[in-house]
Structure prediction request, 560 residues.
Amino acid sequence: MSKQVLLIEDEPNIIEAISFILSRDGWSVKTHSNGADAVDKVKERQPDVLILDVMLPGKSGYDILRELRDDPNHSELPVLMLTARGQTKDREIAERAGCNAFMTKPFSNADMLETVRTLAAK
Amino acid sequence: MPRDTLTGSRIRERRVMAGIKQSELAKRADISPSYLNLIEHNRRRIGGKLLVDIAYALGVEPTSLTEGAETALLATLREAASETDLPAEELSRVEEFAGRFPGWAQLLADTQRKVETLQRSVETLTDRMTHDPHLAASLHEMLSTVTAIRSAASILAEPGDIEPEWQRRFNRNIYEDSARLADTSRSLAQYLEEVDSEASETNAPQDEIDAVFQQAGFHFPMLETAEADVDSVVAHFGADLSQSARWLLHLALTRYRQDAAKIPLNACAEVIDRTGADPLALADAFDTDIPTAMRRLAQMPDEGLADPVGLAICDGAGVTTFRKPLPEFPLPRLGAGCSLWPLYRALTRPMLVYSQLLEQSSRAASRHRAIAVAQPIRRGKLGEEVHFESHMLIVPEPRTNTAEPVHEVGLTCRICPHPDCEVRRELSILVATKGQNF
Prediction:
């Protein structure tokens, strides 16, 4: 069975592009675009890798990640954070919240694929 | 021969643009339609007489078929490819790609250009993001859109077959997103423009009252009469000014009123007729201090003097508090002027009246006499500190041979060409100065 990626992102065309790239690479891709119930979605889907945008309606990506890390079942889940701001400050916040990888928009498709593969192999 | 590979595509493009059927063009060029078809798909090389025949049949110059505008297109496509890890054998097919899918290639190139422009503006603006919520929101929107465009564009650019349905989908996404980007960047540009103009209005009240004085020609007839009322003049000229500018205007016009009372206009004009723009003679005639006479000269209507005079006043911190520039002796709009001006030198030796011939080095043609004096802003009190301000009157002076030394001074460092000035505080944009090598 193919490995599953859950993508939490609110920009439809980014969702479409990332889904396409990852599906073509053999991943099963599920998407969700609301921050408020994102944690529930993660618990329900049990993905192998989580791609999490920082700016989400309802709840920020940082808060979602902190909640997940507090849950023993998801303390080890590989998480890639996406942000539109590339400042050191954001990277620090993301790392302190417990992300495994961090990418700033705009990113290249190749980097995205590479990072997801690396995270899944861990 | 890289260029040859696209000749067929150009023939096809020209033919379609001209609305000629393939069979019709083949007939005119005296070849079979299937052979023309191979040529048009860049499967057969073409040159010599046949090329000339086809060009003639299409009504175009033969060179327009062999040399296209594709060089720029190909360069852009290569740039787009250089940002991905496209394998070398794919990269070498870029011409084939541009030749066989000119529309797609152009779309990709346009998108690449757009992404580059946007990435540049994003980089420039990143620093401002933290400080401005509106800006942060707009930039977030732009970055999201750029991300979507970039992802979709590189899916189209990468090797491998993409089903037509997906191609259409990503094409449509790019189209929609670029329209969104255009909107966002337009509103962002408008917003930034507004921010700029707000800043110039609210941040520089000095600028606002400069404009009032310029408009009045530095002469206020309403303040020259015995029953003059400063408040009504401020209300008249200051209606559209910010509060801080009105406060400054009130200060400046109160002083004007006092000066006019000490040296009345008509009597002043009579003295000037005899002695010219000489502040010391005017001060003697009315028993005032020299700065009062300087201000009065600067307040005269244009017809009252042979040449209008300029005036700069600065406070003890060297900040310009009043400026009346001359066409050939400009004064900086913001900040301080050249350290070499006697205006500043006078502050180091209060009460001494400096007189120097000056030439602003950036304005070779003109010479001016500067008369400067610094004095306390009010009469001293027992055991109390006094504060100083400095006045410099600027009088145009003919360029004649004189034994008196002429001092070369600047306006502001940034636009001063003086090569080795020891009081330079900023690099010049005009010349390479010592220190620019660092």
User: Anything to note?
Assistant: The longest strand of chain B covers residues 367-376. Chain B has three domains: 2-68, 89-203, 311-438. DSSP finds 18 helices and six strands in chain B.
